[in-house]
Specification:
This protein is an alpha/beta fold. It has helices at residues 16-31, 68-76, 94-101, 147-156, 178-198, 203-209, 216-227, and strands at residues 2-7, 35-40, 80-86, 107-114, 117-122, 130-136, 161-166. The structure holds flavin mononucleotide.
């Protein structure tokens, strides 16, 4: 399987969330051979979409001549598009959002009704592409936090989707937290093996991975202790 990872964290390889994503990919590789390419969104030259829509008519091209042309080719050449990102203001970080906006040439302006909503008809065939989102965040709570990003991801991509959310992700960068992050990464590796073997991850395992690694109040008090001034 060809896997394209778009890493939305501006911290690139030092990303907290990429600890999770790397563990997932390791699990996948334990279950089979996969070709993985990781693109750090912050390193790409991707101009903002101007909203001119010229790309959506008659197979038209984008007015920008930048890295996005090659990235679209890489997306179309992949079997799995994996978005790895930290929650930023309840959504994805701006460099990754800029890339997602620029996937507009994959759609035409024509729209059709699908169930209770409308969506654009594709200009490119992405039917074999599967989608995955791995998202981490700084708060200990998942509820009232991940929902906007999860809803956006579900709306954005048709077809097979898997969503893995995990709170308290700054802990992955703290060596002193290895006692709890190590077992959690092992669960993520198991999820990777499961996904490679079956194309999905059991709900119970997703829920276990998405639960706080340490109690919410303990996490908050550690963060507050490091922040100084909080009571
Ligand atoms: C601009 C900004 C916005 C953030 N917004 C949220 C948020 O809405 N909810 C949350 O739980 N954490 C939020 N965080 C915390 C990050 O998601 C958290 O620190 C994460 O572990 C960073 O992951 P990374 O190292 O992979 O970039 C925000 C961080 C920044 C810098």
């Amino acid at each position: 399987m060809k896997i394209l990872v778009l890493n939305g964290s501006p911290k690139k390889d030092a990303s907290d969330v990429m600890h999770v994503t790397r563990a997932f990919l390791e699990g996948m590789k334990e279950a089979g051979t996969h070709e993985v390419k990781i693109l750090h969104a912050i390193e790409q030259h991707v101009e903002y979409c101007t909203g001119c829509f010229s790309c959506m008519f008659n197979g038209g091209a984008c007015v920008h001549d930048d890295d996005m042309k090659g990235i679209l080719e890489e997306i179309l050449d992949s079997d799995l598009l994996l978005l790895s990102f930290p929650l930023y203001c309840y959504g994805m970080p701006a460099p990754l959002k800029a890339m997602i906006d620029r996937t507009l040439p994959l759609s035409s302006m024509a729209m059709r009704r699908v169930g209770d909503r409308y969506e654009h008809i594709g200009q490119a065939d992405v039917s074999r592409l599967r989608f995955m989102m791995i998202c981490g965040c700084g708060f200990p709570n998942s509820a009232h936090n991940f929902e906007p990003a999860v809803a956006q991801f579900r709306q954005l991509f048709r077809g097979d989707k898997t969503i893995l959310t995990i709170p308290e992700t700054p802990m992955f960068a703290a060596p002193e937290a290895a006692g709890v992050t190590g077992p959690r990464l092992e669960l993520v590796r198991r999820a990777g093996r499961q996904y490679a073997a079956t194309g999905g991850i059991e709900d119970a395992l997703l829920a276990e991975i998405g639960s706080p690694m340490i109690p919410e109040e303990v996490y908050a008090s550690i963060v507050n202790g490091n922040a100084g001034g909080a009571s």
